[in-house]
Amino acid sequence: PLIPPIFGTDESGWCTEWNPAMSKLTGLKREEVVEKMLLGEVFGTQKKSCCRLKNQEAFVNLGIVLNNAVTSQEAEKVPFGFFTGGGKYVECLLCVSKKLDREGVVTGVFCFLQLASHELQRALHVQRLAERTALKRLKALAYIKREIRNPLSGIMF
């Protein structure tokens, strides 16, 4: 329980690491994802992808984050979300850092997922529901305001 979900790639983008915590989170065994392309086959927008991303923008952003990790000096932390093998949507913080050999040559990327606690996830869910309700009420109020602006329309309303 103390080890976070971890996955990794080699310098060509092939998935080389998928730890037990990642298997538990996604429902996908290590054998199902290792030696597949991380972008496209493991994380992608197509239905055949192991872990589907919400849209093309999320796919492009993941590619940019992975590329930045290889070329920059610092590890990067970004919000990340995907659908598991079972269809559950997971929101987390993706921490990406490059993997180096003894000579300092980049050999790939390690990715760690930081998940919110159940209490925080529940609070975020309640917040989203409250925002949707407020938006619906705001639209109804705007409609009423527009209808009563003209006195005749107000009387008919």
UniProtKB/TrEMBL annotation:
GO terms for biological process: regulation of DNA-templated transcription. GO terms for molecular function: photoreceptor activity. Coiled coil: none annotated. InterPro entries: PAS (IPR000014), PAS-like_dom_sf (IPR035965), PAS_fold (IPR013767). It comes from Raphanus sativus var. raphanistroides. Residues 1-43 form the PAS domain. Keywords: Chromophore, Photoreceptor protein, Receptor, Sensory transduction. This is Phytochrome A-like protein. The gene is PHYA. PROSITE patterns: PAS.
